[in-house]
Description:
The complex is a heterodimer of chains A (405) and B (213).
Chain A: H1 8-11, H2 13-24, E1 30-35, H3 42-56, E2 60-65, H4 70-83, H5 92-108, E3 114-118, H6 129-132, E4 135-139, H7 149-159, E5 164-167, E6 180-182, H8 199-208, E7 217-221, H9 230-241, E8 247-252, H10 261-273, E9 278-282, H11 288-297, E10 300-303, H12 312-319, E11 324-327, H13 332-335, E12 343-345, H14 348-360, H15 362-379, H16 382-395, E13 402-404
Parallel strand pairs in A: 1-2, 1-3, 3-4, 4-5, 5-6, 7-8, 7-10, 8-9, 10-11, 11-12
Helix pairs in contact in A: 2-16, 4-5, 8-11, 9-14, 12-15
Chain B: E1 4-20, H1 23-32, H2 35-48, H3 59-66, H4 71-78, H5 88-105, E2 118-134, H6 137-146, H7 149-162, H8 169-176, H9 180-188, H10 196-210
Antiparallel strand pairs in B: 1-2
Helix pairs in contact in B: 1-5, 2-5, 3-4, 6-10, 8-9, 9-10
Amino acid sequence: MVRIEDYAPIVGQATVDELYLLADRLGGKLVQHINSTAVGGGVAEILTRMIPLLTQLGVHARWDVIKGDEKFFTITKKFHNGLHGVPVKVAKDEYDAFLEVNRENASTMDFGDIVFVHDPQPVALIERRKDLGRNWIWRCHIDFSKPNPEIWKFLQQFIEQYDTAVFSAPAFARKLGIPQVLISPSIDPLSEKNKDLPEDVIDSVFSRFGIDRSRPVITQISRFDYLKDPLGVIKAYKLAKRHADLQLVLAGGGATDDPEGPVIMQQVKEEADKDKDIFVLFLPPASDFEINALQRGSTVVLQKSLKEGFGLTVSEALWKGKPTIASAVGGIPLQIAHKYSGILTHSIDGTAYWIKQLIHEPQYAQRLGANGREHIKNNFLITRHIKDYLLLFLSLFRQEDIVYL
Amino acid sequence: MNEFCFNTKVDQTLLLGRTAKNIPELLAGVKVVPESSIYYHTHRYLQQHHFLSPEPPNDFAYWITEVLNDARLGESISSVDIIQFRTLEELRSRFIEILSDDAGHRRGAPSAPEGQEFHFMASRTFVVRTPHVARTLEEFKEVLKRLSVNSLYYHIFDAKLRLEKGENDFSRWFRDLGKTELAERVARLDPYTFTLEGLRSQIIRLVDLYGTD
């Protein structure tokens, strides 16, 4: 099991000591996380890693998962798509069914001193507040920049009953009658996806996939879905390749809920078939080690998304000191300050231009990567995430601008 | 006994739900947001990017330069000499002055592309006492060497501008110890032009030079 002290050599003992100081101030309050899935997905992943660390710090932390039938999850999937701007229509009986499942769960659940509800699925548990009291936090992990107005209106009536709402990026903030806090997600430097790897291990992964490490490699790790713009990546690669020797790696999961997914995947395959320097790797879910090696062995990492919740693959690449070119969408501008810790682009042409620049100016690229790694170390590792959560819990009991603990 | 108790601080970032897409909207926001927002946008880069030297300018200047592509106004805003200001209200007034002046001369108001609007945020600061205490300059130096950057940041930046104490905490303590020259030298540093590690080394150097009797 990973120990909180294992992070001290990475972030410094003083940072770990600060976590103990903050945890101590919570005075034994029970913090209960509630979400809708125990495995799979970013929320479950972060809670799995975070709860044991919070416990080691002395926080009384618990994690519960709401129960729902297939119909409930079909409805919440609709919510999810609608909140991401996909046109959907939710019928009245679907809203009713959603509430019914929340009420059933609320009636059988024991609640902690601080109830920390993740994402829209369990949002209506807050109805219990009027008879139970307690402190309630709602955490939104998804892109909320342009939610479907009807679904938003439905959710807002519940969200505004919480003490605080938490969002991952500034663009997701809404006009709400409750305080809104920014807490970015994080990566774990000790996880399989991010831990250090020896060069020969990286070499072996590259040779397994037939990629030549002696030539420049540009890589995008993400699902094959329209919003990650893999076809745009190929276009940028082709433009840059006119003037630079390049290989392109597109690696990620194939499964997607995007109805256009299969079409995109077919087009990506067709493009790859025409060029032996394009490697399309459909990785199974448990491929963290391969992703780690591919990121570490790449010359430049890309994240040319059209839309992002946060875009943690950018943090993963920067943590590995990789010069990174990414679109200025979602949480990516929080991770990259343009020309300081990476490159932010807005178009295929811009991406191609910067690929050439970074391939041809390795010293500059290296400096961007080094700054990027420092930025991630200070702001996007799990220790910062724990600190933000501890502050969030403490802030429920204090209203001042400057709080002396 | 005159001892120095080291505090540390951690910040919570609040989202104010207010955005600006051009200079007039930025100006309107700067006029009304809480002081803690002016503090956040002028100090965030310093704290988040303390390894960079020179660090990127404040958020307003970065956005004006990089998103609105207005290098001239961006430079005016980034060169506001924060160390000269005793209160956040004075600092706010200076930004209002520059932005109003610009708005007065402006024909059109170029707008940020969609998705790159300026988002107003603010800081809530939590101050925690650390176990570290110094009774002598020698002890002070030893603690300072291993202090977290957050603690250094609190005693230098927050103490002077956010808590409006007039000067940084270290200089006040040096003065109490009768080390006036050292106090003056540390007070005269422009901490905004150092990385935090550079600042730490500089203070240790000054203690070595001016701390002995």
